[in-house]
Amino acid sequence: MPISYQRKTVGEGIALTEITDKKFKSNYICISFVSPVDAVNAPLNTLVTEILACANAKLPTLVDVSKHLGYLYGASLATRSRRVGDMQENGLSVEYICDDFTINKEVISDKAVDVLLDCLFDPLLENGLFCEKYVSMRKKELEDNILAELNDKFGYSNRKARETVYEGEPAAVSMLGTVENARSITSQQLMQRYSELKSSANIEVVMCGRNFDSVRAKIVDKLLTLDRVSIPPVTYRSLSPLKQTTAYKHETQDVNQCKMIMAFKSPYEDIYVAKVFAAILGGTPTSKLFSNVREKMSLCYYCSSVYADIKGTMIVSSGVAKENIKKAEQAVLEQIKAVKRGEFTEQELENAKIYLCTGFKSNNDSIYRMAEYYIVQNYRGTAYPPEKACDIFMGITRQQVIDCANTFGYDTFYVLEPETEVDSDE
């Protein structure tokens, strides 16, 4: 049976997406708040989400929540916190076995969805504020995550590069904030932000699986009880403007291997053509960056490219030795010029298309990946099933790739390098 996709507006700033695929024996439902990224609210949004997942008024401890989900055939509750270009998405999801496959077809779908709704909209409160025990616990976890990111040189370099690539844009903001900020967040701030999310954030509901008849109305009815204000529609795709001159930034830390990140930007509209370009350049094991810069020239330990269609930006990431930084940069630029000149074979083009199609079709393999795939389709304003996206990929021509490549300009060069010369790889 083919996949069924339906999306509709069910309230002020509230959208419901329903993906039906009867090969799955479980259902996945997520409810997310979508709001613009800003430095003050980003960590608050993350903390609120984590606190909501701890307990609710009916299940007042983590143990209670865990036990209750266990009784529901091992249903699971999870948090969702992600950046989507200049927007931030925060919420909760629940996955549970379909009623058709329980013992004697016991109805558990209502109970699983009740946990999701109660955690989101009937939280555990003390004197009108979130439970202080869970606030303290989640604040400490946020602080630990910030410190972990600082100690993870790959993650740190990506974050610092992002600040330069998207300077002056919401996309440059850290989702975690600083340790000092994490420590200073109060329960009052968190409760205020929670109220704002319920009233003024866009709300996205995504249901993936089979037979949502028993829970659809329950979810919509609950959302319609929220006191909502006039909410502007979300525009996910916000192209990052190309800098007039390439920005160069060097940082030093106690690292053994240089992390080199180069960003290229384009206003090209067809994201599928841009994805093929990025795959030919550095997105596959047969790509130009892997075959030439890494293998033939031995200028880097790894070298790959990925296209972020939401921001119209292609990022090339490399691990290089300090003495090879300039050579590696020039080698990457030369490979891009080669694609712009059409210096790639039909086999390279075919390999890139097949590689992308394999990745897209793999989204059919799990209910979570299926849901995430269509959530991304929502970001793009489309509803292509993976097979349709693959048809688009396979129809892309050599000239389209060349034309696309020639629209990309060199925006940012960032490198995190050792403070002193080192002899070994990190």
Descriptive notes:
The chain has helices at residues 41-52, 62-71, 109-121, 132-151, 153-165, 179-184, 187-200, 213-224, 271-283, 288-296, 325-340, 346-361, 367-380, 386-394, 398-405, and strands at residues 4-11, 14-20, 26-36, 76-84, 87-97, 125-126, 129-130, 202-209, 247-253, 258-265, 302-308, 313-320, 409-418. With 426 residues, the protein is an alpha+beta fold. Helices cover 43% and strands 23% of the residues. The chain has 2 domains: 4-224, Cytochrome Bc1 Complex, Chain A, domain 1, CATH 3.30.830.10; 247-418, Cytochrome Bc1 Complex, Chain A, domain 1 (2-Layer Sandwich), CATH 3.30.830. It is globular and about 60 Å long.
- Main pleated-sheet profile: 6 strands, mixed
Please give the CATH class of the largest domain. Alpha Beta
Q: Percent of residues in beta strands?
A: 15-25%
Q: What level of helicity do the residues show?
A: 40-55%
The CATH superfamily of the largest domain bears the name: Metalloenzyme, LuxS/M16 peptidase-like
Following the backbone from N to C, one meets helices and strands in this order, namely: EEEHHEEHEEHHHHEHEEHHEEHHHHHE
